Amino acid sequence: MTPPPASSGPSSASGTGTDPGPGGAPRDEADPAPEGVASVAPHAPAAPDAEAAARRARRSRIVQVVVIVAVAVGIALVPPPAGVDPRGMHMAGIFVGTVLALILQPLPTAPVALTGLAVAMLTGTMTTDGEALVGFANPTIWLIVASFFIADGFLVTGLGRRIALAFVARLGGSSLGLAYGMALTDLVLAPATPSNTARAGGVVYPIVASLSRVQGSTPDSDASRRRLGSYLALTSVQVNTVTSAMFVTAMAGNPVAQKAAADLGIEITWGGWALAALVPGLLSLVVVPWAMARVYPPTLTRTPEAPAHARAELRGLGPLSGHERIMAATFVLLLVLWCGGSLLGIPATAAAFGGIAVLLVTGVLRWSHLAANASAWSTLIFFAVLVGMADQLDALGVIDLVGGAVSGSVGGLPWTWAFAVLALVYFFSHYLFASNTAHIVAMYAVFLGAAVATGAPPLFAALVLGFVGNLFGGISHYASGPSGVVFGSGYVTTKEWFRVGFAMAVVLIVIWGVVGTAWMGVLGLLA
Fold first, then answer.
1. In sequence order, which residues have a C-beta less than 8 Å from that of residue 187 and are 6 or more positions away?
2. How far is CA 380 from the centre of its chain?
3. What single-letter DSSP state applies at residue 79?
């Protein structure tokens, strides 16, 4: 894929649409064709190779659809076990088929969700008045959508790029300093950017690519890419998994986990999540660039030109514009409300919409920005449908059935060992997924229910599995949207990714499993 330009607009850089497709390359469902690819004249004869590739793609899609339908029908035909509503197995078949389609991607994400919803309504598995559309009234879903629009403000005003350049100007004298500068940029933007792909592809990666090329590091050869670009690019992905885990609003799947926990009677507030992730998150941001420099070291360690390059670009940007100042002030206000809104009686979703109103009234954002953000609207459809399906599975008794089976597999173990096994299985099963969110939708509620059944403290288990839903995003080149962005750049090979991804997974598991657990013990979450 073509690396995202530094001036990526809101609709191209914001959203969940860049989750990797089946081949590992990022897929932008908001665009009919990759940007920068020349269109073919209507009457121009297609090359034989192109025709053959198109035929293979059609055959592959047909096979995918057949597999999806076969799996869905097979599950739907299973007689409902005791305690499960007669519609339960039908709903399970439709849900599993939808999730499988999200993984195989015969269609983009939103069309897959709409197709699954249509099947559920047409078969009578979900009623149109009280079940099928309930997800569209969920405030958590609208918090995600609102956060996409807020994130647009960083891109439209250029404030996100300015922040990144400011950190590079101060820390960029070495490859390690550059990595820490990128980490701080990601951390600052994370609370208000639910698309980790937007942060990675719209803000961080363009800076990484620019700095790497200035230092003579391009994907053209192994010697050139390993000079600096490979290290910065892959480190940015590992850092992104950490910042995504630190805030409910830093990755689109986190509110889904929050909602699933609430359905089990476990309340996770924005501030509670952030506080629990604070110590392991900050420690990870210190350790990850350093560990990456040893696991995957660049051949260039000193970059004395980088700060000067960043300062020159900052001079070119000029002083802070009025819109940048408004965006920064709105962002700070939102952080205050998200952290302490419960004391003021202001829900997180209400605060987010208040922030959008400020940005619209002051002209920082226009309605055209919001209307053009296809990824935000696709996310609304995708999450609303899947949350509604998950609620229906719970209401029909399927979640209790599956949770009981999973908890039974670790029955007899002390809850500490049982939960450790469940968390590790949840983590490494992500090798089977090409999206954090799809994994969370498919497995979070089941594993949380199983963990609670083994005796694990409910809030502790909900938070740990919520963190894991982000931390596994760097284990493969197809694991998440940011992974797809970086892999498509050509700076990292598949073999390198699997080796380094596994090594960093171990590092993160140790930090969050040991230090994170100790910190949550201090907070009283293990009682």
1. 243, 246, 285
2. 15
3. P
**Dihedral of the alpha carbons of 42, 43, 44, 50, in degrees to the nearest 10:** 70
Q: pLDDT tens digits, residue range 254-291?
A: 998 999 999 999 999 999 999 999 999 999 999 999 99
Mean of pLDDT values over 79-85? 90
Residue type, 307: P
DSSP 8-state class, residue 432 = G
Q: What is the CB neighbour count within 10 angstroms for residue 158?
A: 18
Q: Residue 312: what residue type? A: A
Query: For residue range 204-216, what is the model confidence (pLDDT) as tens digits?
Result: 887 888 778 878 8
DSSP-derived secondary structure letter, 429 = G
3-state secondary structure at position 215:
coil
Instruction: Please state, as a whole number, how many other Cβ atoms lie within 10 Å of the Cβ of residue 377.
Output: 17
Which residues does residue 26 pair with via DSSP β-bridges, in sequence order? 20
Name the nearest CA neighbour of 188 among 161, 148, 211.
161
Query: Could you give the dihedral angle defined by the CA atoms of residues 455, 257, 335 and 518, in that order, rounded to the nearest 10 degrees?
Result: 30
In a domain, 64, yes or no: no
Q: What is the pLDDT of residues 93-103, one digit of tens each?
A: 998 899 888 77
> Is residue 357 included in any domain, yes or no?
yes
Question: Structure tokens of 329?
Answer: 């002030």
Evaluate the CA torsion angle 43, 46, 52, 56 in order and state its sign: negative
Q: Could you tell me if residue 102 is inside a domain? A: no
Burial of residue 193 (CB within 10 Å: 0-12, 13-18, 19+) is: buried
b/e code 213-239 from CB counts within 10 Å (16+ = b)? eebebbbeeeebbbbbbbbbbbbbbbb
- Report whether pLDDT(8) > 90: no
CA distance 341 to 329: 17
- Cα–chain-centroid distance for residue 133? 24
Residue 179: CB atoms within 10 A of its CB come to 26
- 208: which 2 tokens? 């990484």
Paired tokens of 64: 């995918």
Provide the β-strand partners of residue 174: 302
Range of the domain at 312: 137-365+397-522
Domain count within the chain: 1
Could you tell me if residue 97 is inside a domain? Answer: no
Q: Confirm if 411 and 145 have CB atoms less than 8 A apart.
A: no
Distance of alpha carbon 234 from alpha carbon 296, whole angstroms = 9
CA 23-27-30 angle, to 5 degrees, is 160
Enter the DSSP assignment of 174: B
Instruction: List b or e across 501-511, with b for residues whose CB sees 16 or more CB atoms inside 10 angstroms.
Output: bebbbebbbeb
Nearest Cα to Cα of residue 18 among 487, 503, 389, 428: 487
Residue 11, pLDDT above cutoff 80: no
Sign of the alpha-carbon dihedral angle for 246, 384, 110, 379: negative
Judge whether 149 and 376 are in contact, CB under 8 Å: yes
Contact 91, 126 (CB under 8 A): yes
